[in-house]
Amino acid sequence: MKWIAAGLVGCGVLAAAGPGVGLPDPPAWQRKEKVSAASLAVENSANSASASRPIAEMEAAYLRGEYALVVATGQRVLQEAPASAADRLDDIWYLIGLAQLQLQQPDEARRTWIVLLDQWPGSRWRPDAETGVADALWMSEEPARAVALYQAVLARLGPGHPASTRAQYQLGQAARQAGQWTVARQAFEGVIAGAPQSFEAGLARAVLQQSDFTFSVQVGAFGVRDNAVRLQRQLAQRGYSAMVDQALADGRVMHRVRVGRFSSREQATEIASRLRQDGFPSKIVP
Description:
Layout lengths: L1 H6 L29 H27 L3 H14 L8 H14 L3 H14 L6 H14 L3 H15 L6 H15 L2 H14 L4 H12 L4 E8 L2 H13 L4 E8 L2 E11 L2 H13 L5 E3 L1
Antiparallel strand pairs: 1-3, 1-4, 2-3
C-alpha cells in the first residue's frame, strides 16, 4: 500500500484523540476468555487470511476513487472482527484514514490514525500514520501545528527512512501555508538534496522555481477563463488588484482569481476580511 501513501502527496498536508467516529471502541476487541497459545495461533492465522479479501477490496475501491466504499467496508470488517483478530486490523484502520482524508474529512482521519498509533505502536504503518495526522492538521487549516508534528516525525525517523521524503515535502507545504518561509525553503531544498530522483523532489523544484513565498487571497477558481476574467473585472471596479493564473486540479485546468501578494499572513487576513465584507468569498493561499 505504499503506492496509496505516495498518492497523498498530490492532495494538497498529533493532537488528542476525540471520540470515535462510528467505529468500534478498541477496548471491545480485547479477548476476555483464556485460550491456549496453540489455539490462538491457529485462530489468528485464519483471521489473517479472512482479512486479506476485504483489504484487497478496499485497496481496489481506493484506486477507483470510491472512498466512501472504503470507509464503509472497513467499518463493517472492524465491527464483525472477533476479539482476537488483531493481525491485520491496522491495515484496515490505515486505509480508512486515507479514504477519510480523500473525502475531505481530516478530523475523522486524524482520529482514525490516532487509534492505529495507540493500538499498534509497532505497526508498519506507524510512520505513514504519524505523517497522515500532520496532513490532517494541515487540511484542517492548522498549518503551524502540522509543521511542529512533521518536524517531530522527521526527527524520529531520521533522513534515511523511506517515509521521510514525503514527510519533508509535506513539511515544506505546511510551512508555506503557515508563512514560515525559511522552514519551507529548507524543507524543499532538503528533499532535493536527500532524494534528488524522487517524485517529491520534482514537486519541490517546481515550488522553488515558481513560488515567491508570499500570501495571496483567492476569490474564485473556474474551469472557464471568461468567468475568471469577469470576476477579475468586478474586483478591479472595487479597487482590488486581482490577477488570473492557471493550475491543474484533478486533471483539469483551473483559472484562479487572486488578490495581492503579501509578506505576512496578517496582511492577507486583513484583505480577506475586506473582501468578505464586500461580498466576495475569500481564502488565504501561499
